[in-house]
Amino acid sequence: MAIYLTKESKVLVQGMTGGEGMKHTRRMLAAGTDVVGGVNPRKAGRTVDFDDRAVPVFGSVREGIEATGADVTVVFVPPAFAKAAVMEAADAGIGLAVVITEGIPVHDSVAFHRYAKASGTRVIGPNCPGLITPGQSNAGIIPADITKPGRIGLVSKSGTLTYQLMYELRDIGFSTCVGIGGDPVVGTTHIDCLAAFQEDPDTELIVLIGEIGGDAEERAAAYVREHVTKPVVGYIAGFTAPEGKTMGHAGAIVSGSSGTASAKKEALEAAGVKVGSTPTETARLVLDHLEAARDVTHS
């Protein structure tokens, strides 16, 4: 089991013939992802050779779905065209759109998120690394060789911290890792992933990575308190960030006491979430919990 992405997922890549699209399509294929086609209206009808596999290029998402049965698209198009790309995918009835592109104007993100939701399309991102179900499928830019399948579910605003926690907990492994992105407006939230991991029988423990800015982590803490029975371990990036300065992600800005790492840590701990002060300490909290759970089981 996994959330959102499995070995049965059939993946299109919008922007596959561009530099980033080509590079990461090759990496997705190497990870075992069933990439069934690319989308580029100017190159429709061609095929692109990736090592031992030729991938067809379609003129539209709808054509790709009709020809292949695709149910996931990964969007690598430039920011100016991202809104149209996601809306096209939603119109075609795609189930999941993973928007890797960064630098998309917030008003465009608001528009395509609303449009996709009304169409029944789940959006992950934008400005995100995508998601991976190790050993099954990889949709995006997350390295596939730094962990293995296991029973930890991971949801994170930060791409690099996603990778670090995956590596630190590589001996345990993950059910699915989801990088939701750090923009002020994202399609899939911490809460969405918490709910999905709660229902996934193969996820034993959930790791939640947040960062300064906004109130997403506080809302996630409230959701954990009311709805999540599985153990949750957290980490908040940005304890040393100066007030009023945007740090990295567009959403990572602190105003007064709102959105601080300390406030988020306090809210999560009040909901029963153990929060590490560093990524390494967070990984240790996960290991300690799993070891304690095994001791109880064997006693």
TrEMBL record:
Keyword set includes ATP-binding: no
Annotated EC: 6.2.1.5
Binding site for substrate: 163
Coiled-coil boundaries: none
Domain annotation CoA-binding: ranges: 4-104
Pathway(s) it belongs to: Carbohydrate metabolism; tricarboxylic acid cycle; succinate from succinyl-CoA (ligase route): step 1/1
Catalytic-site annotation from UniProt: 249
GO molecular function, one term: succinate-CoA ligase (ADP-forming) activity
Reactions this protein catalyses: GTP + succinate + CoA = succinyl-CoA + GDP + phosphate; succinate + ATP + CoA = succinyl-CoA + ADP + phosphate
Oligomeric form and interacting partners: Heterotetramer of two alpha and two beta subunits.
Name of this chain's protein: Succinate--CoA ligase [ADP-forming] subunit alpha
Protein species of origin: Streptomyces pseudovenezuelae
Classification lineage: Bacteria, Bacillati, Actinomycetota, Actinomycetes, Kitasatosporales
Gene that this polypeptide is encoded by: sucD
